[in-house]
Amino acid sequence: MKGRQIILDTVEGREVAALMVDGRLHDIFVDAEGARVGAIYRAKADKPQKGQGGIFVTTPEGPMFLKQVKGLSPGQSLLVQVTSHAEESKALPVTDRLLFKSRYAIVTPGAPGVNVSRQIKDDERRDALLALAHDAFDMDSAGLILRSSGETGPDDEIVEDISAMADLATAILADGEGDAEALIEGDGPHALAWREWVEPAEVITEPGGFETHGVLDALTRALDPVVPLQHGHTMIIEATRALVAVDVNTGTDTSPAAALKANLNAARELPRQLRLRGLGGVIVMDLASLPKKERRAFEMSLKAAFRSDPVETILAGFTPLGNYELQRHRIRVPVAEALKGVL
């Protein structure tokens, strides 16, 4: 089926949202157990311990870990926000630098200034958005970022979004004293779909939409460790506790440029595969044989592929052994783990 479809459903009681593009699964959000990324808590600082590089804080969801913070006394109240999903056997990471994020606007307490996404290139539109922002936003101690979705968003909706985020930020920042408490639970998959998938699409909300529109079948195929690529090449993706291993193979291709073609195919497909699997952390690519003179072509292809990917990813580069390393924000739930027993 041509076009974009956003399908909102539940799987075994868990909220899930899928984005299909031209009949192909393009992205998926799966709800987390416990605290969601973006959730905000009033927490209590625990007693600091040497060598931790941070401090544990007490929340209603249990202890969480706040990195690189100074000047907190045990028992002191503070506001924290969940930044990513926890690694196995580790505390959930949080920050005291809050962000209030919606479809068009991000309010940044403690970082004043009004800015427009660099992805919006049209100078006239940038100027118009800045004018809207200065009229609608009046928080002296916070800043505002207008997201790339504002390029085509209706002005009245953008103004409404700015005002709503400013009001929410003001209310939360004024509620920093007291016992440990959950103040904002964070956006679930259906809200995230509205917030992040902003291009025009058919929205399907009837129960059983995943079954009717083939989402579960597409997801089962997408989670296979062996990813078929063009020209008979393959990419094998395996998640371990320490890292995500990606093995690129030429498969049945015996042409002189087989290795380069396989690596370029893998570079173009990798962001989608990581999105669909909800994988993050350290990613190590074992590429098909790649001479140093061909590395630049691979790196340019990989950089271009991740440019439009919504998850922050650092392209670290080649190791002394010739592998390629990336570091990806753990902002999503590992899908195979979340839907275990369903797929």
CATH architecture assignment name of the largest domain: 3-Layer(aba) Sandwich
Q: CATH topology of the largest domain, which one?
A: Aminopeptidase
Number of helices: 8
The top-level CATH class of the largest domain is Alpha Beta
The helix content, as a percent range, equals 25-40%
Quantity of strands, as a count = 20
Describe the protein.
The protein is of the alpha+beta class and 343 residues long. The chain has three domains: 40-95, Beta Barrel (OB fold (Dihydrolipoamide Acetyltransferase, E2P)); 100-177, no CATH class; 223-338, Aminopeptidase. The protein has helices spanning 123-136, 155-173, 189-196, 209-212, 215-222, 258-277, 295-307, 335-338, and strands at residues 4-11, 14-21, 24-30, 40-45, 54-59, 62-67, 77-82, 92-95, 100-101, 105-109, 113-116, 142-146, 181-184, 202-204, 226-228, 234-239, 244-249, 281-286, 313-318, 324-328. The strands form four sheets. Strands 15-16-17-18-20-19 form a six-stranded mixed β-sheet, with helices on one face. Helix 1 (123-136) crosses helix 2 (155-173). The radius of gyration is 22 Å and the shape is globular.
